[in-house]
Amino acid sequence: MNLLRPLAIASLTFVSVTALPAALPVQPVSAQLTPRVPCAIPSISVDPTTVKRGNSVTLKGSFTNCSTNNKRYKFTLKLTGPNNFDLTVGPLTVSVPTNKTYTRSESVKIPSFAPVGDYSATVIVRSFSGNLLNSASTALTVTK
What we know:
mainly beta, 5-stranded mixed sheet, 3-stranded antiparallel sheet, 10 strands, elongated
């Protein structure tokens, strides 16, 4: 299982050096990394962290555009729980300037029929074309 997820893909330009006469001085070679896809650093919180069925919880998700230019992203907030319980807000298309943070809060009413137990609130950030860039999750407990 691969536990590493790249946040950005970069391109490198390499210079090929053929055999040189020994009398020629050696010159340093440099390479510059240029991000080719968006980069996102997400976070999420829930308030309260324990909620009774029929009451509301606030999901607050955000991410920072860590790429070198303005980008469009697809942003999703998701609440999943026992018995395939799933509430989803999104995907929303958002434009975020470089080094700026997008934040969205959603008040979600937990249905009275929702299963009791441990839930996961997740923020998912995808490139505009739909490639998964990053995600973050936190726990929520639903009680009777």
